[in-house]
Every structure is written in structure tokens, then in C-alpha cells.
Write a structure and sequence with these properties.
alpha/beta, five-stranded mixed β-barrel, 10 helices, two-stranded antiparallel ribbon, 23% strand
Length: 289
């Protein structure tokens, strides 16, 4: 079996971020920072670590700050140099010419539709999908862990994470088959099942490696949960036709699309840092005293 290399990654970043209003009224939700780094940068760095060569942003109106973040910043860089200050904090953010590529999702019709908007850029290659709301902290990152499995199995590989049963109605859920260590066979997929009907407590934490055939399925979409075009429904049609595996994440997940999860991420990553960790830890102890 010939396994094509994984070179491209799609980032669906067209969402309005209504759960974080008013912060997201004029700023993309993906630019919200965890400590001092935007969520989108964490996701892009995870992709680059996994060997991704071309970044594809599926954007919407009002996302220019996101595009500017990965571009050159003449004034800032010149000012830092003139003042003899280090550029270390922003080095490596600017991407090579031709990456990122930007394509717009004109209407908010669901994750499946957002991914489909990148079809002409993806072409006939396998591609990754990363949802920046899901901050995955591990060494190596989740996508790199998935690529290691993909290079052995080919086909489709998705992240897998155990969650409490009472949360299964919020996510795409895996119906698992045979397990081999941290790799689980994906027997079926269901998007946001009614509580009590989920086939397992394994959710998909916003990381996917997919074959281009999923785009052909999305060419003729069917509205699913919430009246949206669901990526999970399209992926489910590939099961049985191509290898399909889930990789149990060896690391920590923070749901930064949720206010409590976002605060938890900031606290956890701040505590892990040498420069501010001790001060934040002392402050947290005082709050809890």
C-alpha cells in the first residue's frame, strides 16, 4: 500500500466566536491569547512540528488580524531592532511565501462546509484539519502522534479522547472496534448523539488526517446535527472503504471555545512556565486560602 505524504493542513477559522463576546466583537476568536500566544499560533506550531508544509486558513470577514499575525511586521521589527531589543518573541511566526493560503467561507454552514471550501487547494492529497479552539498540549503534539500512526496505516486517522458520559452530546463520538495500545479502530462515527445513546465516551478532539475522497462526499452534502453540514457525517461514509483509526492522545486537552476551559488553559500554561509560574502559583494559593 502506497501512503501519500501529509503536506497540507486546513484550519477552519471563519467562526464568529459569539461565546466570547464582547472580546470577539472586533477580534478573531483564534487570536485570543493563552498567556502570551494566540490560539491559532499554538495550532500552527503543532502542524509544523508534524511536518506540515502548507497552511490553509478557511476564513471569513473580519479576520485580517489573523492574516497579519503570520505576515511580516515592518514597523514592529524595525522598532525592536532600532532599540536593540530581541526579536526572539516573534521569530518563526512569519511563514514562507505561499503559506498560509487563505480561502473564505461565505456562510456559516458547518465544519464540513468549511473544510469543503479548501477543496481546490487540497487537491488529490491527504490533508490534516486542526480546530484552534482545541488546545492540545503534549510532547510531541497530537498531530505528530497521529502522523506516526498514519505513516503505518494510511487511510484516515483522527484524534480520540475519553470524556465523561454526560458530555457526549456535545461532540463527534467514536464507536470503537479493536484496540492496539493507543490506537483504536473506528467502527462508526456519530455527531452529537442524544444523551444516553452514545456508542462510547471517545470524542474527536478537533484533529483529523483525512483522504481527499471526503471532499467528493462533501460535494453533495446532507444537513446533519444542528442543521449544519457535519464533517463527522462525511467521514463516516469512508469507514469500510479506507483504513480508519483513532489515536488516544497522550497529553492534555483544553477546550478554549469554552470560557472555563480557556481560563484553565491560561492558568495551567502559566504555572508551567519558569518566568511567571512561581508568581502565578503564589497568587493562586492566596486566592484559595
Amino acid at each position: 500500500m502506497s501512503i501519500k505524504p501529509l503536506r497540507k493542513a486546513v484550519f477552519p477559522v471563519a467562526g464568529l466566536g459569539t461565546r466570547f463576546l464582547p472580546a470577539t466583537k472586533a477580534m478573531p476568536k483564534e487570536m485570543l491569547t493563552v498567556v502570551d500566544k494566540p490560539l491559532i499560533q499554538y495550532a500552527v506550531e503543532e502542524a509544523l512540528e508534524a511536518g506540515i508544509e502548507q497552511i490553509i486558513f478557511v476564513t471569513g470577514r473580519g479576520k485580517s488580524a489573523l492574516e497579519d499575525h503570520f505576515d511580516i511586521s515592518y514597523e514592529l521589527e524595525a522598532t525592536l531592532k532600532d532599540r536593540g531589543k530581541s526579536l526572539a518573541a516573534i521569530e518563526g511566526i512569519r511563514q514562507k511565501p505561499g503559506s498560509p493560503v487563505y480561502v473564505r467561507q461565505q456562510e456559516p454552514l458547518g465544519l464540513g462546509h468549511a473544510v469543503w471550501c479548501a477543496r481546490e487547494i487540497v487537491g488529490d492529497e491527504p490533508f490534516a484539519v486542526l480546530l484552534p479552539d482545541e488546545l492540545m498540549v503534549g510532547q510531541p503534539g497530537l498531530l505528530a502522534q497521529m502522523v506516526e500512526v498514519y505513516q503505518r496505516t494510511g487511510g484516515n486517522v483522527i484524534g480520540a479522547l475519553e470524556i465523561p458520559a454526560e458530555q457526549t452530546d456535545k461532540y463527534g463520538i467514536i464507536s470503537p472496534g479493536a484496540r492496539d495500545g493507543r490506537v483504536v479502530e473506528v467502527a462508526a462515527l456519530v455527531e452529537k448523539p442524544v444523551l444516553g445513546t452514545a456508542p462510547s465516551n471517545l470524542m474527536i478532539p478537533g484533529r483529523y488526517i483525512l483522504q481527499p475522497e471526503v471532499m467528493k462526499i462533501l460535494d453533495n452534502p446532507v444537513r446533519g446535527a444542528g442543521g449544519e453540514i457535519q464533517l463527522t457525517d462525511a467521514m463516516a461514509q469512508l469507514i469500510g472503504q479506507q483504513p480508519f483509526s483513532g489515536v488516544m492522545f497522550d497529553g492534555q486537552r483544553y477546550d478554549c471555545g469554552d470560557k472555563a476551559g480557556y481560563i484553565q488553559a491560561n492558568l495551567a500554561l502559566a504555572l508551567a512556565r519558569d518566568d511567571i509560574g512561581p508568581v502565578v502559583r503564589d497568587f493562586a494559593r492566596q486566592l484559595l486560602a
